[in-house]
Structures are given as structure tokens and as C-alpha cells.
């Protein structure tokens, strides 16, 4: 496929993610306004945005390349690791089965998180939490929003609502309460990292997302057969980290991607579409070629 990539962003979230703000259509408007010619919406554990964007195929002059994407929550030992899968057929039964397994496990995790918070003295109703999530799996955003409705919780939530963590309350709340070692962490495994990679390695281009967040892991532990690329450029990474992951990619013959991990300013303030720091569009040329080789999961809109 002869195509000039231009500006790009391969990691962002829409309102189909439990912690996204903008609809896929709103994201598309921003993408086109900013002259971004290649993008992917990698919502958490759902293909809803991919299915929605497919209906826009060719609708806007076929100048923007959209690549199917999803960010999968997997576990490597006791650590949650996010893997972005790209270029898959959205009807892939293997992927759909993986997502159904995730949903069942996440529902159990939600119930246990509610019980844990209640045991800590928080006022929180499981049914109201689900209603607040609009049918999606409740995220840290949903939890904090629902908890903040009860004045009895105000003192415990002060740091997030008014104090030093209020500039990015949802992200801070999630990391303080729900990651391993957090105040309301519960041991419910989602998807096994190696099993998930093995199942999808011939069906999608698989990428280790924002590796800089896994400070308690040697990233090279995660490089296994089926991992094709590493998200070296990310809004989470310093210039030193970017170089570190570029070196790792070179050493292991991995492709390189770049993503802003945009969620919306209310959720992650200051993170903008296209703001991943990579200005060399040729970086992802080999990635595009690998996606095209799959023959599915990309189209112009």
C-alpha cells in the first residue's frame, strides 16, 4: 500500500472506554482538524469504537487511515500489563472470546472492590455504581464519581476532590486504591499475559503499551514470541526513557509505536491527541506495513 503516514497517534480512548470522555466521532473531528492522517482508538477491552468507526469508511473523503485497536488488560505474574492489539478483524472469534472472559472476570472484580471499600467505611452501592457506569464496566473514574456523591465519604476523598491530588483525581485514585498494594486492591486475575499473546499472535499486531509504567518489571521479560512492537513514544516517558525503549526495540528487532494515551482533559489533564512527542513519521512505516500484511482491520475514512 502506497501511503504517506504524516502525523499520527496510535493510542487513545473514546467514551466507549470506561474512563474516556469523547465519542469516536468527536475524536475523528479533532484528528482531522489537527491534520493527523493515521490513528487508532484503543479503548480498554472493547471493540465498540472499531465497530462504530467502520461505518465512517470513505465518508470523509478517504484521507485518514484508521487502524482497529484495543488495549487489553493482562496479568504477568501479579502485575497488570497493558497490550495494544492492532489491525485485527473485528469479527475475530478468538479476540471476542478473550474479551468475554475479561468481562466476566472484571464483573467479579467490581463486586469485590465494592465490598473492600465498604469494609473501609465508604458508602457505596453496587447497583448505583453500575447505573452510573452506563452499562460499561465501572472504572476508577466511575468509582470516584459515585463515591463523591455521598457526603459521608468527603473526608476520606479530600485529597482527590480538593487537596494535592485534585489536579488529576481519577488517575491518582485508581493508582492509590486499585493497583497491587493499593488500599482496595483485590486479587482477581484478568487475562494471562502469555496465554493472550499466544492466542492473538497471528491475528493482530501486538504492542507493549507505555512500558515506562511498569517500574517493577524488566521490560525484556515481556518480550516473547508474538510481541511485535513497543510503545517507545508516550506521554508517560521522559526523553531518556524513549531512548531506552528505542534501544530495546533495536536489540530485539521490534517495531516502534507512539501514542498519547488520550482520555480527555477531565480524566488525564494536559494529555492531547498527537502529543506523544514523536515527530518522525517514518518511525511507524514498518508498523503500517505489518498491519497491512494482516489484510484486515484498517481502512480510510
From TrEMBL:
Residues covered by the Polymerase/histidinol phosphatase N-terminal domain: 8-76
SUPFAM superfamilies reported for this sequence: PHP domain-like (SSF89550)
Any one GO MF annotation of this record: 5'-3' DNA exonuclease activity
Coiled coil (residue ranges): none
Protein species of origin: Seleniivibrio woodruffii
Name of protein: Polymerase/histidinol phosphatase N-terminal domain-containing protein
Record-linked Gene3D superfamilies: 1.10.150.650, Metal-dependent hydrolases (3.20.20.140)
TM segment ranges: none
SMART domains per the UniProt record, alphabetical: POLIIIAc
Amino acid at each position: 500500500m502506497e501511503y504517506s503516514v504524516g502525523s499520527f497517534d496510535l493510542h487513545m480512548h473514546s467514551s466507549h472506554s470506561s474512563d474516556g470522555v469523547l465519542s469516536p466521532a468527536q475524536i475523528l473531528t479533532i484528528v482531522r482538524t489537527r491534520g493527523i492522517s493515521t490513528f487508532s482508538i484503543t479503548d480498554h477491552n472493547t471493540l465498540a469504537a472499531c465497530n462504530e468507526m467502520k461505518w465512517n469508511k470513505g465518508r470523509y473523503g478517504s484521507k485518514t487511515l484508521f487502524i482497529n485497536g484495543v488495549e487489553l488488560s493482562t496479568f504477568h505474574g501479579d502485575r497488570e500489563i497493558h497490550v495494544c492489539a492492532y489491525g485485527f478483524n473485528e469479527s475475530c472469534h478468538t479476540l471476542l472470546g478473550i474479551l468475554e472472559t475479561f468481562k466476566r472476570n472484571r464483573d467479579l472484580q467490581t463486586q469485590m472492590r465494592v465490598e473492600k471499600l465498604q469494609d473501609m467505611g465508604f458508602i457505596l452501592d453496587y447497583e448505583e455504581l453500575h447505573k452510573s457506569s452506563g452499562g460499561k464496566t465501572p472504572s476508577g473514574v466511575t468509582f470516584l464519581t459515585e463515591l463523591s456523591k455521598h457526603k459521608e465519604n468527603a473526608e476520606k476523598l479530600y485529597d482527590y476532590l480538593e487537596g494535592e491530588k485534585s489536579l488529576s483525581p481519577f488517575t491518582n485514585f485508581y493508582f492509590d486504591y486499585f493497583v497491587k498494594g493499593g488500599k482496595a486492591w483485590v486479587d482477581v486475575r484478568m487475562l494471562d499475559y502469555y496465554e493472550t499473546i499466544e492466542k492473538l499472535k497471528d491475528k493482530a499486531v501486538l504492542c507493549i503499551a507505555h512500558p515506562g509504567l511498569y517500574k517493577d518489571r524488566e521490560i525484556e521479560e515481556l518480550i516473547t514470541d508474538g510481541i511485535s512492537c513497543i510503545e517507545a513514544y508516550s506521554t508517560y516517558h521522559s526523553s531518556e526513557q524513549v531512548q531506552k525503549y528505542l534501544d530495546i526495540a533495536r536489540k530485539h528487532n521490534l517495531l516502534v509505536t507512539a501514542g498519547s494515551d488520550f482520555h480527555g482533559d477531565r480524566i488525564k489533564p494536559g494529555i492531547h491527541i498527537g502529543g506523544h512527542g514523536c515527530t518522525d513519521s517514518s518511525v511507524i512505516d514498518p508498523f503500517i506495513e505489518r498491519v497491512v500484511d494482516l489484510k484486515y482491520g484498517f481502512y480510510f475514512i
